[in-house]
TrEMBL record:
Protein name per its UniProtKB record: Putative sigma54 specific transcriptional regulator
Entry-linked SUPFAM superfamilies: Homeodomain-like, P-loop containing nucleoside triphosphate hydrolases, PYP-like sensor domain (PAS domain)
PROSITE patterns linked: SIGMA54_INTERACT_1 (PS00675), SIGMA54_INTERACT_2 (PS00676), SIGMA54_INTERACT_3 (PS00688), SIGMA54_INTERACT_4 (PS50045)
Organism: Natranaerobius thermophilus (strain ATCC BAA-1301 / DSM 18059 / JW/NM-WN-LF)
Cited CDD domains: AAA
Pfam families: AAA_lid_14, PAS_9, Sigma54_activat
Domain Sigma-54 factor interaction as annotated: residue spans: 287-517
């Protein structure tokens, strides 16, 4: 190589490669029988013959004839160097031994990149030079041009090599598999990712793609010149499904090849899961309550969120178990990772294992070619929330216990052990302790899950939250549905506060949404209750009597009414009085006294 291109302060300059240039200098010297010096544009001697050979690497003095030639870009003959006008500002002019120089610039792309100089050291050499000046000049000019040409060719090759190296580095740094072919379907590029993904071995550059990766359907892309995007392709050698995008490579509107990007669909699934909002999305602030037990529970959950311990959240359906799980994940150091909820009870037993752990191609009849990634793998780096854990079949409990103990499992149909980093949160409304006695739940798994138990009380056990939550949800749905928030009558509010809320907060939320939907007059009363609740209201016949402060009776009056009813039911025989005493929780003597007091005997 004769030169190398380097960048100085970001500007490309041509640097002479000494070895190749020295050979040329010696050839010129052999032909002309004169000493030769070649200096680069920085005035550094990069080649030299005769006495100059030992001085390669020296910088020529500023103001010398060589500098003049570089600046003027002209061929120059200098007689009597040192004394010549050109050498006027040369710092070493007094030491000059030479009799004459003939200098010729080497121009490349309008830039002087070097100077070839031939030197006469003796008077006879000087005479020869002067005598045949034109011939010498023409010779070294030709040599300069030859050198410039060869520099130029090498520069093109070098630039191509450099560009190729840059493109290869870029292509290999990409996570996606990339494979390109020319218009003869021969492979022209193939990165490391595609090699790993499709298990391509050896050098395949120049080979017909159909012989190496027959499943890549380049044909249509090359013949039609149109892209094929989002194509799902099964690669039998490695047994995986990939998403393939193919684009034609065009030059002057002619298709000269095609490039394909290839990605494992399982990886895309993981990525999509991560970026499509599969974060928990709720913080502890979303848990609304003024109940002291709930406040303590939230504090406990906040503390446990900072660790990786397993939490078993217990409570009736709709109490907010998933909400707590999401808040724990959001407050945990794993918050950037995915939150993957799995409703064990909602997935048929036969599918639950593949849903949780995934499967390999051909693992069972009906298994998707290429297999499927399980929820545990999707939760990598994050949290899996196993809701209704009590519904998990016993054989899966064993597999789950292993994942929880050492973080390993195998996909169905695969011998390969997968290691994962996932935090497990579980929830149930079922009596797991009873399940253990009935051998429906593994005791060891229960202890493993129950490291930190959180019990969420039912809504009826914290009635002070009813009006707070109702208000919150009325407001939420009024905003969401862009409707007015209605006022609720005292009777309606009173009923709602006494209602048993079997569906807990979820039921209350649904009722609030219902109210916003049906509200027309800006005011809701008992008659506006949803049907199931209205039925409940009618069932409790005495209900109406118990509402309204005008209906609150003095205790004495209540007592009198109780005795009147009891007399109607049991009569006033001795046996009747006996039963009455048991029912009213008083002695027989008291029964006798009260009956007399109220004039009932
Ligand atoms: N304290 C609370 N504050 C605000 N919203 C709540 C509260 N508790 C529950 N919710 C809301 O109630 C609804 C039901 O909660 P969630 O789904 O977490 O209950 P769950 O106990 O997991 O139910 P299931 O056992 O049926 O799966 C959700 O919309 C949730 O946001």
């Amino acid at each position: 190589m004769i030169f190398v291109a380097v960048k100085r302060w970001g500007v490309p300059v041509t640097k002479i490669d000494n070895k190749g240039v020295q050979q040329i200098a010696e050839t010129i010297s052999d032909v002309l029988l004169l000493d030769v010096t070649i200096v680069d544009s920085d005035l550094i001697r990069v080649a030299g013959t005769g006495s100059y050979k030992n001085r390669i690497g020296e910088r020529l003095p500023p103001g010398s004839g060589y500098e003049f030639s570089i600046k003027s870009r002209q061929a120059t003959t200098i007689n009597k160097p040192g004394k010549n006008q050109i050498c006027y500002s040369c710092t070493k002019k007094s030491e000059c031994q030479e009799k004459a120089h003939m200098l010729s610039p080497i121009n490349l792309n309008g830039q002087v990149i070097a100077i070839i100089g031939i030197t006469a050291f003796t008077e006879s050499q000087k005479q020869d030079l002067t005598y045949a000046e034109e011939k010498y000049r023409s010779f070294i000019k030709k040599m300069s041009e030859l050198l410039a040409d060869s520099f130029s060719n090498e520069q093109i090759i070098l630039e191509k090599t450099k560009a190729y190296a840059q493109v290869s580095a870029i292509v290999n740094s990409v996570y996606e598999g990339i494979l390109a072919v020319d218009d003869y379907n021969e492979v022209i590029a193939c990165n490391d990712a595609v090699r790993d993904l499709l298990d391509i071995r050896g050098d395949i550059i120049g080979q017909n793609v159909e012989n190496v990766v027959p499943e890549l359907p380049f044909e249509g892309v090359i013949t039609t010149g149109t892209s094929k995007l989002g194509h799902e392709q099964y690669f039998s050698k490695v047994g995986i499904h990939c998403l393939v995008n193919m684009k034609p490579i065009k030059m002057n509107n002619k298709v000269v090849g095609a490039v394909a990007t290839v990605r494992d669909t399982k990886e895309i699934e993981k990525l999509a899961f991560r970026v499509s909002g599969n974060t928990a999305g709720f913080s502890f602030n979303a848990i609304i309550s003024k109940n002291n037990n709930i406040k303590e529970l939230k504090e406990k959950a906040k503390k446990v969120s900072q660790t990786d311990s397993t939490v078993l959240i217990r409570g009736e359906s709709g109490t907010g178990k998933e909400l707590y799980a999401r808040a724990i994940h959001s407050a945990s150091p794993r918050w950037k990772g995915p939150f993957v909820p799995v409703h064990c009870g909602a997935i048929p037993e036969t599918l639950l294992e593949s849903e949780l752990f995934g499967y390999e191609s051909g693992a069972f009849t009906g298994a998707k070619k290429g297999g499927k990634i399980g929820k545990f793998e999707l939760a990598e780096g994050g949290t899996i929330f196993l809701d209704e854990i009590g519904d998990m079949p016993i054989h899966l409990q064993t597999k789950l216990l292993r994942v929880m103990q050492d973080g390993t499992f195998e996909r169905i149909g695969s011998p390969e052990t997968i290691k994962i980093d996932v935090r497990v949160l579980a929830a149930t409304h079922q009596p797991l302790e009873e399940f253990i006695e009935k051998n429906k739940f593994r005791r060891d798994l229960f202890y493993r899950l129950n490291v930190v138990p959180l019990f969420i009380p039912a809504l009826r056990e914290r009635r002070e939250d009813i009006s707070l939550l109702l208000n919150h949800f009325l407001n939420k749905y009024a905003n969401k549905l862009k409707r007015e928030q209605p006022a609720l009558s005292r009777e309606l509010m009173s009923f709602l506060e006494q209602y048993s809320w079997p569906g807990n907060v979820r039921e209350l939320e649904n009722v609030a949404e219902y109210f916003i939907n049906i509200n027309e007059k800006g005011y809701l009363d008992l008659g506006d209750l949803p049907k199931n609740m209205k039925d409940k209201l009618l069932e409790t016949q005495d209900y109406q009597k118990n509402v309204g402060d005008d209906e609150i009776l003095p205790l004495e009056e209540l007592e009198k009414r109780s005795f009147e009813k009891a007399v109607k039911i049991y009569g006033i025989s001795e046996q009747g009085k006996q039963l009455m005493a048991g029912k009213l929780g008083v002695s027989r003597a008291t029964v006798y006294r009260k009956l007399k007091k109220y004039g009932l005997i």
